[in-house]
Design goal:
Oligomer: homotrimer
Number of strands of chain A: 9
Structural class of chain A: mainly beta
Largest interface: A-B, 41 and 43 residues
Strand content of chain A: over 45%
Distance between the termini of chain A: 9 Å
Order of helices and strands of chain A: EEHEEEEEEE
Largest sheet of chain A: 8 strands, mixed
Shape of chain A: globular
Radius of gyration of chain A: 15 Å
Amino acid sequence: MNYREVEVTGEYMASLDNGADWREEIESLADEVDTDAAWFNAMGAVQDAEVWFYDQEDQEYQSVTFDEPLEVAACVGNIALLEGDRFAHTHAVLSRRSGQALAGHLNGGTVFAGEVYLRAFEEPLEREHDEVTDLDLWL
Amino acid sequence: MNYREVEVTGEYMASLDNGADWREEIESLADEVDTDAAWFNAMGAVQDAEVWFYDQEDQEYQSVTFDEPLEVAACVGNIALLEGDRFAHTHAVLSRRSGQALAGHLNGGTVFAGEVYLRAFEEPLEREHDEVTDLDLWL
Amino acid sequence: MNYREVEVTGEYMASLDNGADWREEIESLADEVDTDAAWFNAMGAVQDAEVWFYDQEDQEYQSVTFDEPLEVAACVGNIALLEGDRFAHTHAVLSRRSGQALAGHLNGGTVFAGEVYLRAFEEPLEREHDEVTDLDLWL
């Protein structure tokens, strides 16, 4: 396990725009507050969602699209630099009318309404290729 | 996307009372620490739960009640003023014995045990009616 | 509801080791930063997972093992002392390739990749036996 102590530079509440992309909105927030490292929590609802599952054997992401309105019951993620760009690594738990939960890596989704808490750090986080997992990891 | 930088006034750990209502307990915590704006995370278990799903077309909440013991695997939410009262907007992911997950907007649920982390902010958050979604949103 | 205001001693980002145990890694982080009380959030993926559900009537944990790769869509927990040892009370929402979500108390799981945010507090948290629930609770 590798870790780093971080110093906060600011903390923010945000409301996402209806019709925009969930992940892009969070990346826009990172741009607005000019941070290269942050942790966030969010909740709300989307009009659709593209969820990824990482195939640990084939080392490739598999995509599933849910073209239906879903609650965002929980969303956890972080901002780091990936090849020089700010990337919001975003995981989410979604739910259907029945209460059935769906979850995974949220590549994108059309915002219905979204509420975000983001905590920005002084030390930039950079993702680098990891040989074991073939993922881009930080620290 | 709208956002606001926030200043923390205090942070708190809380243990919820067995038999009380999950959301009311969090609202009581907001009252105890006298805050009109906060972000929280929680976990624990409930004896039952009422979960809402927002019908984005009809613009009405649909309710599902689970009258059974459930783990609270993740709970994310925030405190804001709604028509002058403190309201805990609460989303939760619940689970059954099989591991099956259920999720959505948690209107209420009877606490079995609950552990909460709440972070209170100086600037009050106020919910106002939003024409596009017919929801009460802040910022 | 019982609560306590807490003072932060430090906040940390951590990357968990591939092949290690998810919960033990978080407990190692608590050891590294020498804290007896913390709140954490995490995300990533596991190679397998053992999830517990608390039977509120029999007052015993029931275990379910998922011997398959899963995304960790959301993970919420806290560090406290349990019989003198640091214990990471860990809840998680996991997901399968189809997007199906599983959730509960995460006893353990083999890390594929894990990203953690941990916030350490000055005041130690101690778990003590609670007669009503037969659980070890703090505050």
